[in-house]
Amino acid sequence: MSNTNRSGRLSVIGGGQMAEALIGGLLAAGRWTPEQITATDLSQGRRDVLHDRFGVGVGADNREAVAGTETVILAVKPQVVADVLEELRSCWNHHLVISIAAGIRLAWLRERVPADVRLIRVMPNAPALVGAGMSVLASHESATVDDERLALGLFESVGRAVVLEEELLDAVTGLSGSGPAYVCVALEALSDGGVKMGLPRASAQRLAAQTAVGAASLLLASGSSPSRWQETVLADCPPAARGIDALLRAQAGSALINAVSAATRRSRELGA
Ligand SMILES: NC(=O)C1=CN([C@@H]2O[C@H](COP(=O)(O)OP(=O)(O)OC[C@H]3O[C@@H](n4cnc5c(N)ncnc54)[C@H](OP(=O)(O)O)[C@@H]3O)[C@@H](O)[C@H]2O)C=CC1
Ligand SMILES: O=C(O)[C@@H]1CCC=N1
């Protein structure tokens, strides 16, 4: 039996970073073919990248792309979604629309598309670019079980995907949606610390990044909580205990909590 997806055709409106990650993941997973996918972007450069890299159909005409497909991923920036939906106003015909725009609520989308359109909101994150994403889905009541399964399959092709209530999606945006940026801040600082203590910059960056991958993998594999792991390290490793003491005195934990809170509030503002 063919493993190819039988859900028809997919258009991705906005051919930027997330579109590239998703299209790459879908094709690599082998469940969609390039012939099933069309991506649109304003820029010829982005269209060329997506066409040359993946062989998918590309275009500048969002209306044409949507008319030729059953499932639509809205992958433009949040500030552009209203204009795109206005442009597409007369193009809908029982579509499934999956929006990945930060902060944009299902109720807000519902007011801008006809009643026969089914809606799912997703918050992915940047590591989707390398197949290590974390995506959280929230389905509108209009979406069917099959729609949710289809959407889960799409985002599982670029990492892990789970379903949560929509009211949690701003906090998800503050944590996993924006979190890769905080980890990069931490990695830069860890690298700076290594350089300060005598390591070459390239080595320090490599050590910091692989340490983060290793620590996260350990945590996921163990099913344990971060604080339990920290206690284990404290008990067994005097240098790490001294380092953690320095972090606690600098209130590094509070700084990260503030980062998640601030990004969550910003996501709420985008949807207001
Ligand atoms: N990047 C991330 O880490 C994450 C992003 N998201 C969400 O994903 C969405 C896309 O983000 P990302 O891929 O990073 O953004 P990008 O800016 O990389 O991609 C958006 C693309 O859409 C194009 N575009 C703008 N207007 C239109 C239009 N009217 N029709 C078609 N294409 C258009 C843009 O072109 P141009 O640049 O020329 O304007 C750009 O190439 C956003 O809503 C964001 O909130 C969600 C989670 C994580
Ligand atoms: O570019 C964005 O909108 C993303 C979504 C989460 C954080 N930043």
Automatic annotation (TrEMBL):
GO cellular component, one term: cytoplasm
Matching InterPro entries: 6-PGluconate_DH-like_C_sf, NAD(P)-bd_dom_sf, P5C_Rdtase_cat_N, P5CR_dimer, Pyrroline-COOH_reductase
One record GO biological process: L-proline biosynthetic process
Record-given protein name: Pyrroline-5-carboxylate reductase
Occurrences of domain Pyrroline-5-carboxylate reductase catalytic N-terminal (ranges): 10-103
Catalysis performed (reactions): L-proline + NAD(+) = (S)-1-pyrroline-5-carboxylate + NADH + 2 H(+); L-proline + NADP(+) = (S)-1-pyrroline-5-carboxylate + NADPH + 2 H(+)
Subcellular location: Cytoplasm
Key words of the record: Amino-acid biosynthesis, Cytoplasm, NADP, Oxidoreductase, Proline biosynthesis
EC numbers on record: 1.5.1.2
Residues at which NADPH binds: N62
The Pyrroline-5-carboxylate reductase dimerisation domain, residue ranges: 166-270
Principal cellular location given in the protein's record: cytoplasm
Gene: proC
Keyword Phosphoprotein: no
Family: Belongs to the pyrroline-5-carboxylate reductase family.
UniProt-recorded Gene Ontology molecular function terms: pyrroline-5-carboxylate reductase activity
UniProt pathway annotation: Amino-acid biosynthesis; L-proline biosynthesis; L-proline from L-glutamate 5-semialdehyde: step 1/1
PANTHER family to which the protein is assigned, alphabetical: PYRROLINE-5-CARBOXYLATE REDUCTASE, PYRROLINE-5-CARBOXYLATE REDUCTASE 3
Superkingdom per UniProt: Bacteria
NCBIfam families noted in UniProt: proC
